[in-house]
Every structure is written in structure tokens, then in C-alpha cells.
Design goal:
By secondary structure, the protein is α/β, with parallel strands linked by helices. Helices cover 27% and strands 27% of the residues. It has one domain: Vaccinia Virus protein VP39 (Rossmann fold). A seven-stranded mixed β-sheet has the order 3-2-1-4-5-11-10, sandwiched between helices. It has a two-stranded antiparallel sheet with strand order 6-7.
Length: 251
């Protein structure tokens, strides 16, 4: 299922008002960890799957990427990305992540930030990414952590005074869609175990180089004390991998 909540006017308005939409990468809780997984981008051809407002695309160009392609299904997101990007070496395409296609070995780096948990066919995306990358090319992505996506409610268990007691985990092994409530809207996300993420990447022809479950940094906790609870359970999982030699999957 290819859901496009971001082109709903009310949902887009709400999303545009959250801190990461206003402050960009510096306001994204996972950015400090995501950034250290990226290779040297100088002279590289980079693809961003689920590019949103184009923050990562512009960052890649600032770091010297030769050219960047950003893909997103949302017309509203891409309109904002294009308005904020004055760079002929950045191209934006409107397409579902599962449907977009490129030539073999067209990119040196493929990234995706908090988009692949919206995609039902993660295995197809991984095989495509392997085909699009040059040998040794980097695949770096972040998703909501499986302990976060396991239960559709995605809410703390609270005590009688409203205190946060613990984060519930159930149905962890039952992979598939979850009808979650985010910003009061019904949003479909796909739950996968950590093992599925790791093994799908390996089986698609990659060698995993790093897996992170980042906690907020000290600086982040000073700026936003409410993030202290994010140290009690991981909210994100980040993975970097390199395309192994002679492993271009056949379509």
C-alpha cells in the first residue's frame, strides 16, 4: 500500500509545525548519529529515498556531492523542497520509493531517513538499491526502531498520576502493517524485526558496516529536557552497509 498522508492539507499543516520541520537536521533526534554513518560525499552521486523537505539533499551538496536526486511521493513536500533549493545539481522526482527506477550503478551513495518503515516491500527496495549502487557504494538508512513500531498505539503506559511507567512491547514477531495514530491521524507503518532489517540488507548483496540505536546526546538533553525519556528505549535504528563485489541482483 502506498499511502500519501503528506498531501492531506491538515496533516501537512501539522507536520510542518513540528520541531524537525522547522529547525531542519539540527532538530532531528537521529541526525547526529546518521551523519557519522555517511561516507565522504565529495564528488559522489547521491540518491535520497523519501527526501521530504530536501534537508539531506542540500546537506549532501554542501559536503561536495557531485549531484543529488531526491525522491518523494508527496507533491507538497517536494514543492517545499524545490522552493528551498537553489541548486541545479539537485533534482527532485515525485514517485513512490517502491516504483522509482534508475540505471545500474548510477549512484555512489543511497540514503533514506525515516521513510522505509512506510514501505511494505522493503526487500524490493533493498534489491533495487543494490542494483543502482556502484560496487563498494554506501547504503545508509534510518527507520523507527522495531520496539517502537511493534504496537500500533506507540504510547507509553502511564501511572495514576499520568507518569510514564514503561514502554510496552507486544506482537514483536508479527510483522506487517500497523495502523498508528500520529498527530491524531491514522498512519500506516510497517513493523519489521531488527533481524529482518539486517538479514534483508545482507541478502540483497550488502556488507553491513554499522548498526546504531542512538540515544539523545548530552547537548540535545540540555536543549530539550523532555527527551530524557528517549533514553529509556530506542526510538530509531540506523544502519550503514556497503555493496559487496559482484552482487548486482537480477530484476
Amino acid at each position: 500500500m502506498k499511502e500519501n498522508k503528506y498531501d492531506d492539507r491538515n496533516f501537512f499543516t501539522k507536520y510542518s509545525d513540528i520541531p524537525r520541520s522547522i529547525g531542519g537536521l539540527k532538530s532531528a533526534g537521529e541526525w547526529s548519529a546518521f551523519r557519522i554513518l555517511l561516507p565522504d560525499l565529495r564528488g559522489k552521486r547521491l540518491l535520497d529515498l523519501g527526501c521530504g523537505f530536501g534537508w539531506h539533499c542540500r546537506y549532501a551538496r554542501e559536503q561536495g556531492a557531485r549531484f543529488v536526486v531526491g525522491v518523494d511521493l508527496s507533491e507538497k513536500m517536494l514543492a517545499r523542497a524545490k522552493a528551498d533549493t537553489d541548486d541545479s545539481a539537485v533534482e527532485y522526482r515525485r514517485c513512490a520509493i517502491e516504483d522509482v527506477d534508475f540505471h545500474a550503478e548510477q549512484f555512489d551513495v543511497v540514503i533514506s531517513s525515516l521513510a522505509l518503515h512506510y514501505v511494505g516491500s522493503f526487500d524490493v527496495v533493498c534489491r533495487n538499491v543494490s542494483r543502482w549502487l556502484t560496487t563498494g557504494g554506501a547504503f545508509v538508512f534510518s527507520v523507527e526502531h522495531p520496539v517502537f513500531t511493534a504496537i500500533a498505539a506507540q504510547q507509553w503506559c502511564h501511572g495514576p498520576a499520568g507518569e510514564r511507567l514503561h514502554w510496552p512491547i507486544d506482537d514483536y514477531q508479527q510483522e506487517g502493517p500497523r495502523h498508528t495514530k500520529w498527530m491524531s491521524d491514522d498512519v500506516i507503518k510497517y513493523h519489521r524485526t531488527t533481524a529482518t532489517y539486517v538479514n534483508t540488507v545482507i541478502h540483497s548483496g550488502f556488507q553491513i558496516t554499522k548498526l546504531l540505536e542512538p540515544a539523545p546526546t548530552t547537548e540535545m538533553l540540555v536543549q530539550r529536557p523532555e527527551w530524557n525519556d528517549e533514553c529509556r528505549r530506542p526510538m530509531f535504528v540506523l544502519l550503514s552497509a556497503a555493496k559487496a563485489p559482484q552482487t548486482i541482483p537480477q530484476r
